Amino acid sequence: MAADARIDAIADPLVRELAQRGQVRTIARNTVFIHEGEMGDSLFVILSGRVKVFVADAEGREMVLDFHGPGDYVGEMALDGRPRAASVMAVEPTVVSVLTREALRAAIAANADVAMNLICTLIERARIATENVRNLALMDVYGRVARLLLSLAVEQPDGKMVVPERLTQQEIADRVGASRDMVSRIFKDLTIGGYVTVVDRQITINRKPPARW
Length: 213
Known about the structure:
Blueprint (H helix, E strand, L loop, with lengths): L4 H4 L4 H8 L2 E5 L4 E3 L7 E7 L2 E6 L5 E7 L4 E2 L12 E4 L3 E7 H10 L1 H27 L2 H12 L1 E2 L5 E3 L5 H8 L3 H13 L3 E4 L2 E4 L8
Helix pairs in contact: 3-4, 5-6, 6-7
């Protein structure tokens, strides 16, 4: 069992229980530790750092599906013994607790609530995937960019809406399934229109962008 102060800091007791059954491992920034299409039998509970989940084509073009941080876990599909459905990369130095499939099964056998936690997580991620597919099918690039910014923005004490992540235009393009040039043109229009301000990659939403451009 892993013994680490970062495990004790996990708020969800069920996720904490999972982390206690694994082996602590440090992952360097920009390291892909889950590879799409490969067989895998481990679940990774994130203790510190941040990871991105993505899919890529043969030319290396990426579509980012989600980001996860401390208290989240990735690789839960290891339970079915089939190839990985997506890749996962550490976007900053990351520490994880790694559980084998056997350790995960033992946790479920010992506590049925662990299984329910996994099921709820899978349901939530399926909902997000469904919403992403809907947006890709029914929204143009502008609509997807505007939706992403509004979903990420956090209201500050002064009333301003600020995106905490300092995203590059390429990172935004990867998340909405578009080219960087297209995102750049959209940001230019939003900036000229006074809807957003970007200073040192910090995006501030001055007023809600229109639903359509």
